[in-house]
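Researcher: Hi, I'm a grad student and pretty new to this. My advisor asked me to get structures for two proteins we've been looking at. I'm not sure of the right format, so I'll just paste the first sequence and hope you can take it from there.
Model: That works fine. Here's the first sequence with its structure tokens right after it:
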Amino acid sequence: MSSVAVIDYGMGNLHSIAKALQHADSRVNVQITADAAVIRAADRVVFPGVGAIRDCMQALTDSALDEVIREVAKSKPFLGICLGMQALLTDSEENDGIACLNIFPGHVRRFAEHMLDSEGNVLKIPHMGWNQVKQTPHPLWHNIPDSSRFYFVHSYYTVPDNQQDSTATADYPTAFTCALAKDNVFAVQFHPEKSQTVGLQLLQNFLGWDGVA
């Protein structure tokens, strides 16, 4: 039986993503865990998260899970979600500047204040709700129509140094990277577990993915 480790570092609705993974493929053994040995032994790893990046990085460092993540992100299919995506960048300007895991070279920036949409309306921060996601080719987009709508909740967004690492964008109001991909790592700013049919399809694609782009 295939196994998935959902990394538990004390932040995020882990049961929601675990339940969605189980729904995407009932044959998969999904474990919510902070045990390094379990994470290393799993066939696939999911790194979710919500909240502040400072608290996230402190929790990872205190538990030594930062090094475990760097290790498994080199060796098996790995999915980062929301804050779990942002933590994969080099650093974030949140909390006056926080060093992150540097798996994807790049930076996390805050949306500007007083942004306007095409009709002159002020856009709220956080960016919250459904938004279209424009894809570039990758196995995890299989059976998901381009410009499908996914559910977002975030005030910060990723700016990768290497644009080839970006595999999807959304507009708020201009385009920002909302999905990253490199080798066996895939990461999304939106919440697939809250994105209904297309979110479940992405999780199903991840559970069948061998880590080759």
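Researcher: Oh nice, that was easy. Here's the second one.
Model: And its structure:
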Amino acid sequence: MTNGTKTNGPASYFPAIEKKYGQPISHWLELLKTVNAQKHMERVAWLKTEHRMGHGHVNALVAYYAAMEKGD
């Protein structure tokens, strides 16, 4: 963050996710749209299994996506 503010919550994981997995966050959010009918932990398990992502990173993505769905 160049403006000196600290990002909190799930989005605080985004820079590390992009660096480790080589894809922008928009890529992962688009993938989550394909499993929209699944529950939180089913989405977590899917990303961990299909994309070999770590639990913390996956949970942050799924939580952020769920908040977007609710309009938070």
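Researcher: Is there anything I should tell my advisor about the second?
Model: You could mention this: The chain has four helices and no strands.
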